[in-house]
Design brief:
By secondary structure, the protein is α/β, with parallel strands linked by helices. It has 16 helices and nine strands. α5 packs antiparallel against α9 and α6 packs parallel to α9. The structure holds adenosine-5'-triphosphate.
Length: about 525
């Protein structure tokens, strides 16, 4: 029941396509088989009253042929529909995962960075889509077709019908053990894959550091260990499938074969005719194969459910708050106020009982021991770290208005700024796509970058063609275009020479004179010198 509730999230995307695709295949197969059984029954009647003619045989063949042709055509169409649904479900899941990772709160989404995000995006979304489509079709198919057959056999001979039912229940019971084991293995496999991808990506990015510390062999053996762990889980999965074939399938075949002598016995006792023996044994074989197929489908269904859970973990994250727009500044209120703020990473408290005020037209700098929580304190303002207590902007609790609107008011230059594929100009324009050429040139010169870099210079993937200090200054130029009221800079001068630092400090003073509130984190004495207030954390 729980699984169905979870599946509905995905099915809701195209319910009609799903229903027709899921039901079409087993229903058309059943109809085709029933047409065949009906034709066979008519044939037996004619045989029994010895009135069979070539015309009857031709009619039977024609009847069966047309029936099967129509059924196959419908089967083909429904199989096509379910395939379409599966592909669109996978794409929709992937899009939702991507959007959630972009729009969900950073404090909740960052645990899915790297390999974990990739595994959930690729493997889990595919298996989750397979669960709501192929696994459901393969589970429903034997139920509908098997029950239809059992009903027909019960109609022909109630004792044989009940025997088949008992065998079916035994097979399903037997399969329970495999379901549990399959599920456990699948979880191990997905965790192992994410773990492997995490290390793999991490080492590809960090290849320079790895060479510098001569750790190639160590890292490569670590990666090898993880790959071997994955392989051993895959081996176990393969072995489980083999055990299943030699136990469950063998059991099913023995049962279906045993039905032939049983039906003959019933015939010898005069309960059923010879043609009925043929019909029953043929149907019994079919039923037992279907029931065993049901066992396989349930195993897959249950183990793929883990993937559905893993994609729902991400899909259920709520977007960042989209509350009201900020109200006008009440001149009596400080521009920004922290009230008894307690910063949290999950259960871990980083800073407690922080109360601070910031006004327009001032430069406030934070300094303090590494790891004491300076960056986290300003990240809370931007919604990147969870906290208790209140942060007020223009007198309004920031949790009450849209985080996107708030971010328009606050420009943030992190310690390690992200660069995106494209030119210096492309990267700066993220601050304001409508900026004029004069504004861009002005921002570049205030960020002390205009003499060094041409605006059409390609920054490369993740800014690999720029130095650390250049990246920082491009990020400062980007933030200057934003025209924000609060400018927050994390170690803005740490990677700069004294000439560039001087230009940046002049820019900060200019921002202050324009009535902006400048907040910076720094350890550098020369930078601290221009602060109106220094707060030691
Ligand atoms: N995503 C995270 N999850 C859990 N703990 C974190 C996370 N990010 C930071 N921390 C912890 O929070 C504490 C404060 O980190 P923060 O980066 O705010 O310190 P900082 O004062 O800015 O340090 P530095 O001067 O070295 O940059 C540290 O103990 C760090 O281990």
């Amino acid at each position: 029941m729980k699984a169905i509730k979870k599946m509905i999230r995905i099915i809701k995307q195209h319910p009609i396509l799903w229903i027709v695709g899921i039901l079409g295949y087993p229903v058309t197969t059943l109809v085709a088989r029933l047409i065949y059984a009906y034709g066979f029954e008519l044939y037996v009647e004619k045989l029994e009253d010895k009135s069979i003619t070539i015309k009857h045989i031709a009619l039977l063949l024609g009847f069966v042929f047309v029936g099967l042709l129509i059924a196959n055509l419908l089967e083909y169409i429904t199989a096509f529909l379910i395939k379409q649904f599966r592909l669109s479900a996978r794409t929709n899941i992937q899009q939702e995962i991507y959007n959630k990772l972009q729009n969900g709160p950073i404090s909740k989404t960052s645990i899915y960075d790297n390999g974990e995000a990739l595994t959930r995006y690729n493997t889990d979304s595919d298996l989750a889509a397979a669960m709501v489509t192929d696994d459901v079709v393969l589970s429903i198919y034997p139920i509908i077709v098997g029950l239809g057959y059992i009903a027909s056999i019960i109609l022909v001979n109630i004792y044989i019908g009940i025997m088949v039912l008992i065998i079916g229940i035994l097979i399903i019971f037997f399969n329970k053990y495999f379901v549990k084991y399959h599920k456990k293995l699948n979880r191990m496999h997905l965790d192992g894959e994410a773990d492997f991808m995490n290390l793999y990506q991490n080492t590809v990015r960090g290849k320079m550091s790895i060479r510098l510390i001569n750790a190639e062999k160590k890292i490569s053996s670590k990666l090898q260990d993880k790959a071997e762990h994955l392989k051993s889980v895959e081996d176990k999965m393969g072995r489980m499938e083999s055990y299943k074939i030699i136990t469950l399938d063998l059991f099913s075949y023995i049962c279906s074969t045993l039905m032939i002598p049983v039906a003959c016995l019933f015939s010898a006792w005069g309960y059923i005719s010879i043609p009925e023996v043929i019909l029953i044994t043929q149907l019994c074989k079919d039923i037992v194969i279907h029931i065993s197929g049901f066992g396989w489908a349930v195993s897959n269904f249950k183990s793929h459910e883990i993937s559905l859970d893993r994609v729902l973990d991400i899909m259920d994250i709520e977007d960042e708050n989209n509350g009201i727009k900020p109200s006008l500044h009440n001149e009596n209120e400080p521009l920004l106020k922290y009230e008894n703020v307690r910063l949290l990473y999950g259960e871990k408290c980083v800073l407690d009982n922080i109360s601070l005020e910031f006004s327009k037209g001032e430069i406030v700098m934070f300094s303090g021991q590494s790891g004491c929580g300076k960056s986290s304190l300003i990240k809370a303002l931007l919604g990147f770290v969870d906290y208790n207590g209140r942060i007020l902007y223009k007198g309004v609790n920031i949790k009450d208005f849209s985080i996107q609107e708030l971010r328009k008011e606050v420009a943030y230059v992190p310690e390690r700024a992200d660069m995106f594929e494209g030119t210096v100009l492309d990267n700066i324009l993220y601050g304001d796509f409508d900026a004029t050429r004069e504004q861009i040139v002005d921002a570049l010169s205030k960020a002390a970058i205009h003499k060094e870099l041409d605006i059409d210079y390609e920054v490369g993937t993740e800014g690999m063609n720029l130095s650390g200090g250049q990246k920082q200054r491009v990020a400062i130029a980007r933030s200057l275009l934003k025209e924000a009221s609060v400018i927050v800079l994390d170690e803005p001068t740490a990677a700069l020479d004294s000439v560039s630092e001087k230009i940046i400090l002049e820019t900060l003073k200019e921002l202050k004179n324009q009535g902006k509130c400048v907040i910076a984190i720094t350890h550098r004495e020369s930078t601290l010198a221009i602060a109106d207030r220094i707060i030691n954390i």
